[in-house]
Structures are given as structure tokens and as C-alpha cells.
Amino acid sequence: MTSTLHPGLGEAARSFLSRTHQLLIDGRMVESDSGRRTDIVDPGTGAVIATAAEASATDVDRAVHAARRAFEGPWSKVTPAERTRMMLRFASLIEDHADELAELECINSGKPLPFCRNGDVVGIAEMLRYMAGWTTKMGGETPNVSMPGEWHAYTLREPVGVVGQIIPWNFPLNMAMWKIAPALATGCTIVMKPSEQTPLTALRLGELALDAGIPAGVLNIVTGFGNPVGAAIAAHPGIDKVAFTGSGETGRRIVQAASGNLKRVSLELGGKSPVIVFPDANLEAAAAGVCSSIFFHAGQICAAGSRLYVHERVFDEVLDGIAKRANAMKMGHGMDAGTQMGPVISRRQLDRVAGYIDQGQQEGATLFAGGQASGEHGYFVQPTVLTGVKPGMRVHDEEIFGPVLCAMSFNDEDLDSIAATANATTYGLAASIWTKDLGRAHKMARRLQAGIVNVNALSSPDATLPYGGYKQSGWGRERGYDAIKLYTEVKAVAINLNN
Ligand code: NAI
Ligand code: MG
């Protein structure tokens, strides 16, 4: 099997890959009940690099019971300050294993190594440290009540309980930590299901959490398919909350499954995020920003700026800048030096994205750059730009989740009407505005229906900033204090001092 591995992989990553990967339940690696295994593929070559255990509903049940025991037992006895220290140790261990984690993330998700090392790994350590700070600061309040007599009233913010977390394949480390860190900070326990395509780094994180002293059963990792593993988590009566990132279709299934015990649900479901470039903008920076947003990680980003609206006076200039960059982009294996864009995750995703590119042209769009896809040795789609795109075309209305930009022009000065065009989507995750006019920037920010608005930028990756969507982009916000709220219940306690 080692012959199929990229030669750039270090010893630690190789040694991890060569292990027999199991499920992490109650602090121990255990075989799955089914005994079945799934191939784990390097999308940059198409080669199998490992196999992972396929959990069953019985395994999920075991994990839920372990999480419940930890929640009611050892984890409930750990003081907030001790939780902080454990989380900080966890963050330090992640940094100690940064190269190994980055290489595993790169070889399994396809994202270029420098992004994995300097973006994902650095980012998850930051996220842990940020959330670790909240453990000692997330108390309740003492409201000034007006009931007759004398009262002492206060609120308690308590952990929601056992949480199920179901994550996708595009950012395996980040998506895991955006969910694990606030759950740990608030005193919840976790049953996590990584994507069946990218379970490796979550398993490694689970081991590092144990090494950091986080008690057995607090973080359980069950690998396997959406059905049965994700479905069993969503439906399980012993789970108090489920947090999901992925497709709208699966999000809807999870909402239905969760209705049995009315567990709390948070969802992050992607988008079709507009980028609006006004003529006074820094056009060079806008073109570069658009490219890094839609082509970085081959467009497999929920907040990717996939609908571009450029004022007609500067449309040609901006589009030429984008096409020049797209055509010059170095595609390749994520571990190869100089790679700017890696593969898409799978043959299925390649076919899906290529299908959109074909269909867009059939529906009347023009191919302005890229357009080719090749699945012979890894799954690669060229950075692609479509012009002449209109509402009603599938490439306009649907999330492609590939390196495909739909570019349109506008000639309007009326901000309400520009916003109406940008808002004409079922999604509402992110939006980006490019202008030097501060008044226009703030006015547009208010008019856009999006959970995240960036001005003269396409992303704002910071642990403090809430992340999530309006409309069908989801329910709730991750990151920031809002994530603490997602993992807590509020209890109002009122004491009549006269009785
Ligand atoms: P998906 O939403 O089906 O998969 C995401 C996670 O949900 C995986 O862990 C999967 O095993 C799990 N899952 C699948 N079916 C489930 C079920 N019935 N119950 C519980 N969990 C279940 O996404 P998929 O099929 O990999 O990708 C399809 C499209 O979804 C992409 O092309 C993209 O448009 C969108 N997507 C959006 C993401 C985002 O970050 N918002 C991430 C991944 C996909
Ligand atoms: Mg699916």
C-alpha cells in the first residue's frame, strides 16, 4: 500500500495511515459491529491510502451511552478552569503534530499542503484556545425582576448534554473543531461522525484529545456512511442536540429524524454567495479575491463567492483579470510544491461539477475560462468561468461546489435593486461587497440577506466571528459566542425571599 502514497509524506503521517483505523468509543479504539470497511482515497491520485471502519447503528448506540456516562460522570466533575487547561493542552498537542495533521488533511481532502498547514491546523488550534476562554466566562445573569415582593432571580447557562456532530469532507479538521471546541467548552459530550470520505484527521484529533487528558467518552468518533451512521445519530433519543454541516438535502433529512425527541438542531448548508463589484473598487484586489474564493480548494467551500456581479463599466477589466489568474493557476496534487488548486474530492463530485459546466452552456451560458475535467489520475476540474448566466439556469440557482464562477454584469446605481438581484436565491450564507465608498458598503451590508458580509474581502476566518446562514443556508451560528449559545440551555431560577 505504501507505494501508492505521495513521496512527500513524512514518517508520522505514513505511520498513522498504515494503522488499522477503528472507532473511538469510550476512550478506546474498537472494531465496528459490522466488521465492514470503506476505502479511503487520495483524490489527487485516485489511489486507496487507507481503510476505515464502517460503524453501525449499534456502534452509534454504544457511543451515545459512553457519551452519556461521561456527561453525567467524570466530565461533570471537571471544573471550568480545568476544562480550559485541557483544551489548551489539546491545542498545544495539535501544534506539536501540525505537520502530520496537515499532511493527512492534504492527502485525504486534496487541499494544497500550505493551506492545510497554515490555514486549517493553525486555525483549529486557535479555535480551541478561543473557545477554551469561554469556559470560565459563560455564566448566567441576574435579571432585575418586577414581581411583587422580594425576589432573587438568576439564570444559569448549562450544557445541552450529549451532542451528535455530523460533518462533511471539504474541511475535515476545521469542521470537526468548529463543533468540538464549543461542545467541550460548554461541558457537553460528543458523538461525531466525520465524512465517510475523510475520516482520518478526526480520528487523530480524538487520540490527541485523550492525550490532553480529556476523559474517555467525552469525544467519541464513529466513522461510516450517512446511512446508517449519520441517520442513527440524528434519530437517537439519547442525543440532545445534533449539529450538521453539509447539503440541504441531508439537512432536511436530519431535521425530520431529529423530530422524534425534538433534539436541538443546528445546520450549516452552504450557499450561492454573491460578490458585488462597484466601479470604484480596487479592481486588482477584487479579481484576486474572487479567484481565491471560488478556486481555492477547487470551489468546495460553503461560502465560496460563486455568483459574481460586476458593474458593466468595469466588467471586462475584472473578468480579464480573473481569466488571466484562472488560466495561470497551477493545478496538481496537494503535496506537490507550487500547487495552487488541488483536486475535487471524488469521481462523483467531478461528474457533478462537469455536468453543471455542460448544462450551463446548454442553457445559454458562455465558457469564458477553463471548462475541462479529467478523472484519469486524480479528480481535477479546471478553474472555470461562465458568463451570460441568468436566473433560472441551474448553474445560477444551485450550489455547484466546484471551481465554477458564474459572472454577470449590472448597470444599476440603485442599491435596493442590486440587493434584490443578489438576494434572489434560496440561500443566504455569505456575500462580498467591493467599493471604496463607506456609505455604500454599509448600506449594502444592511440590504443583503446573508449571515456573513465581507467588504473588500471574500473571507474573514476568525474564531470570534459568528458563521452561518440566512434562509436555506441553515439554522444557528458557529464560531464566536453564538457557538456557546448553540451548546447551552438557559435556566431561569427565581427565589421568593419572603416565604
Ligand atoms: P452530504 O450532506 O450528503 O454529506 C455531509 C455529511 O452528512 C457526511 O458526513 C455524510 O455521511 C452525512 N450524511 C449523509 N446522509 C445522511 C443522513 N441521511 N443522515 C445523517 N447524515 C448523513 O453531502 P455530499 O453528498 O457529500 O455532497 C453533496 C453536495 O452537498 C455537494 O456537492 C455540496 O453542494 C453540498 N455540500 C455542502 C457542504 C457545506 O460545507 N455546506 C459540505 C459538503 C457538501
Ligand atoms: Mg449526500
Number of strands: 21
Please indicate the count of domains: 2
CATH fold field value of the largest domain: Aldehyde Dehydrogenase, Chain A, domain 1
Q: What is the number of helices?
A: 17
Q: Mind summarizing the main beta sheet? A: 7 strands, mixed
Instruction: Provide the CATH superfamily of the largest domain.
Output: Aldehyde Dehydrogenase, Chain A, domain 1
Strand composition percent: 15-25%
Structural class determined from secondary elements: alpha/beta
Termini separation: 74 Å
CATH class of the largest domain: Alpha Beta
Poorly predicted runs of 5 or more residues: none
Helix content: 25-40%
Q: Identify the overall geometry.
A: globular
Enzyme class: oxidoreductase
Pfam family, one: Aldedh
Domain Aldehyde dehydrogenase: 30-493
EC number: 1.2.1.3
What would your notes on this structure say?
This protein has helices at residues 11-17, 57-72, 74-77, 80-96, 98-109, 113-134, 172-186, 200-211, 226-235, 248-258, 283-295, 315-328, 347-362, 394-397, 415-423, 438-447, 480-486; strands at 23-25, 28-30, 37-42, 47-53, 151-159, 162-166, 189-193, 219-221, 241-245, 264-268, 273-277, 305-311, 366-369, 373-374, 380-381, 384-387, 404-410, 430-434, 452-455, 474-475, 488-496. The chain is of the alpha/beta class and 499 residues long. The strands form 6 sheets. Strands 13-16-17-12-11-18-19 form a 7-stranded mixed β-sheet, with helices on both faces. A hairpin with a 4-residue loop joins strand 3 and strand 4 (47-53). The chain is globular, with a radius of gyration of 23 Å. Magnesium ion is lined by residues 226, 247, 250. Residues 30-493 form the Aldehyde dehydrogenase domain. This is Aldehyde dehydrogenase DhaS. Keywords: Oxidoreductase.
